[in-house]
Specification:
Blueprint lengths: L2 H12 L12 H47 L1 E5 L8 E5 L3 H7 L2 H32 L7 H9 L6 H12 L5 H8 L12 H26 L3 H9 L4 H12 L1 H16 L3 H6 L12 H10 L4 H33 L1
Antiparallel strand pairs: 1-2
Helix pairs in contact: 2-14, 3-14, 4-8, 4-11, 5-8, 6-8, 8-11, 11-14, 13-14
């Protein structure tokens, strides 16, 4: 018998290889998947280690105060015993404090005042920031670093300090601006009832225009330079490039600055608070924030103040989301 015949008989006796059981996996692939699973679990633990401190601070400094303010707005404090010197207890009042806040004419007048303030000041500030950003990012701009730092510098001044500085420029007798205006025959009072709101608007515009400008510049820097070159090759001038390319492409940054400005306007507090001793037109209800502060720390009615703070937050959310929907709707319509 030849060797090939013996090999054939040997294979016939051995038979075909046994079939692999259903569901069985090669040991190497199973070990590789186990190692990958352990690696993913380890990465998840590392990521959680980085995120948990932020979540803890967020819950402590943001969520907890909101929950406490809502709780305070739904209760009132009652004191027992003679002359109210006994124990204190909290009584659930429902929406009574909200009704009290909405029935306060000064609180509602403060809302109307900041809405008028925002309707004038926010567009003016955004337009000014946009113009400055476009000028500083133009091809022929010189001294960009210097002017960018100079325009941003007021944002580094705290609002209280800025209000004090401008207060000296508004008070008659010590203000060079008032003296210059009177020298040309213009008798102006920056702190009168008809002008103090716009004097505050000037402080806010001076302080935050540079910040919004930097946000817009950052968006402009993300625009590919090839678009500008193609537009110039097609014969577009600087105005056409700015109108048809730059401004549409920085629309997300414009929306962002608009939302921040709306929220900041409703939270207006430091400027009227500092100017209040100088201007008799600024009372405790000049802005909603100032009215809530007066209720809490002057009237010792922290529950009504909490209700006013919650209402202020709700109005800020409604206006911000409404502005986002409006801006998003216009963007979809243009597409």
């Amino acid at each position: 018998m030849s060797g090939s015949d013996r090999d054939t008989l040997s294979r016939a006796d051995t038979g075909p290889p046994a079939p692999r059981e259903a569901g069985a996996r090669p040991p190497r692939r199973s070990a590789r998947r186990r190692r990958r699973g352990r690696s993913e679990a380890r990465n998840a633990r590392v990521a959680a280690g980085f995120v948990l401190p932020f979540l803890a601070l967020f819950a402590l400094c943001f969520v907890a105060p909101i929950v406490y303010a809502v709780h305070q707005s739904l209760y009132r404090t009652e004191r027992t015993g003679p002359l109210g010197l006994g124990r204190e207890r909290e009584v659930f009042t429902g929406l009574d404090h909200y009704a009290h806040a909405l029935a306060d004419d000064r609180f509602l007048a403060g809302f109307g005042r900041v809405l008028l303030f925002g309707a004038v000041q926010i567009p003016l500030m955004i337009v000014l920031a946009t113009v400055l950003a476009l000028l500083l990012e133009s091809a022929g701009a010189r001294g960009v670093t210097f002017f960018r730092s100079a325009f941003f510098l007021p944002y580094g001044v705290p609002g209280v300090i800025a209000s004090i500085l401008w207060g000296f420029l508004y008070v008659p007798g010590i203000s060079p601006l008032v003296e210059i205006a009177r020298s040309v025959g213009w008798d102006v009072d920056f702190l009168s009832s008809g002008t103090v709101l716009w004097s505050i608007a000037n402080i806010v515009t001076w302080q935050f225009t540079g910040y919004n400008m930097l946000v817009l510049i950052a968006q402009l820097k993300s625009v590919p330079a090839e678009l500008y070159e193609a537009a110039r090759i097609d014969g577009a001038n600087a105005w056409q490039v700015a109108r048809h390319i730059k401004i549409p492409l920085i629309r997300p940054a414009l929306v962002l600055t608009g939302v921040f400005s709306i929220i900041g306007t409703l939270q207006l507090f430091a400027e009227p608070m500092v100017l209040r001793p100088l201007a008799s037109a600024i009372d405790s209800g000049f802005t909603p924030n100032l009215h809530a502060y007066s209720e809490a720390f002057v009237g010792n009615n922290q529950h009504v103040a909490a209700a006013e703070a919650v209402l202020l937050a709700l109005v800020a959310c409604a206006l911000s989301f409404g502005f986002l929907r409006l801006a998003g709707g216009r963007a979809e319509g243009r597409r």
